[in-house]
């Protein structure tokens, strides 16, 4: 569960925000962004000593000053259900992270490297752009490996 997905789900719910300097803010989450900046409404601010209180209609808290957030359990449960249902919908072995090569024994998987890409005998002829050969161009190894001629 990612913190930002948790905060997006918590919009409209009450939450407690404690800052690094010790102050706490209780209010209803209006919005948050990718830097965890938070906009609260109906806010009660408590000093770090706990002896002074302020009531504000709304406030904006910069994300890098936040020490921790306390959100209701119902929000956490909702996020866990959503992530579980999202994982159930995706068929196994499809997608995932990155653009991997696939498996050769799977239907539709890619064969061995180079087949069908014009690389089957290019290295033997000096074709390729490696640093070791002339690269198939007159003039020796000038500019080899840079990708332009």
Automatic annotation (TrEMBL):
Outline the segment boundaries, as ranges, of region: Disordered. Answer: 79-149
Among its keywords, does the record have Transmembrane helix?
no
> Which GO BP terms sit in this record?
mRNA splicing, via spliceosome; nuclear-transcribed mRNA catabolic process
Q: Name one Pfam family in it.
A: LSM
**Is the keyword Acetylation in the record?**
no
Tell me which residues make up the Sm domain: 2-75
UniProt keywords (A-Z) are: mRNA processing, mRNA splicing, Nucleus, Ribonucleoprotein, RNA-binding, Spliceosome
Write out the annotated subcellular location: Nucleus
GO molecular-function term, one example from the UniProt record: RNA binding
Where is there biased composition of kind Basic and acidic residues? 79-91
Q: Where is the composition biased (Gly residues)?
A: 108-117, 124-149
What GO cellular component term, any one, is given? spliceosomal complex
What highest taxon heads this organism's lineage?
A: Eukaryota
InterPro entries (UniProt xref): Lsm4 (IPR034101), LSm4/Sm_D1/D3 (IPR027141), LSM_dom_sf (IPR010920), Sm (IPR047575), Sm_dom_euk/arc (IPR001163)
The residues forming the signal peptide are none
Can you state the subunit structure given in the record? Answer: LSm subunits form a heteromer with a doughnut shape.
Query: Matching PANTHER family, A to Z?
Result: SMALL NUCLEAR RIBONUCLEOPROTEIN SM
Provide the family line. Answer: Belongs to the snRNP Sm proteins family.
This molecule's function is given as: Binds specifically to the 3'-terminal U-tract of U6 snRNA.
> This chain belongs to which protein, by name?
U6 snRNA-associated Sm-like protein LSm4
The species is Erythroxylum novogranatense
* Recorded name of the encoding gene: LSM4
């Amino acid at each position: 569960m990612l913190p930002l997905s948790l905060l997006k789900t918590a919009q409209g719910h009450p939450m407690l925000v404690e800052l690094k300097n010790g102050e706490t803010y209780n209010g209803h989450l209006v919005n948050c962004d990718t830097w965890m900046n938070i906009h609260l409404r109906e806010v009660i601010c408590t000093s770090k000593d706990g002896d002074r209180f302020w009531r504000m209609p709304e406030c904006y808290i910069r994300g890098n000053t936040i020490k921790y957030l306390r959100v209701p359990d119902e929000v956490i449960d909702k996020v866990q259900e959503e992530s579980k249902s999202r994982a159930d919908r995706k068929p196994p072995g499809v997608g995932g992270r990155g653009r991997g090569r696939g498996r050769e024994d799977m239907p539709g998987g890619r064969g061995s490297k180079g087949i069908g890409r014009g690389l089957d005998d290019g290295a033997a002829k000096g074709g390729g752009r490696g640093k070791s050969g002339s690269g198939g161009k007159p003039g020796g190894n000038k500019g080899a490996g840079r990708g332009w001629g």
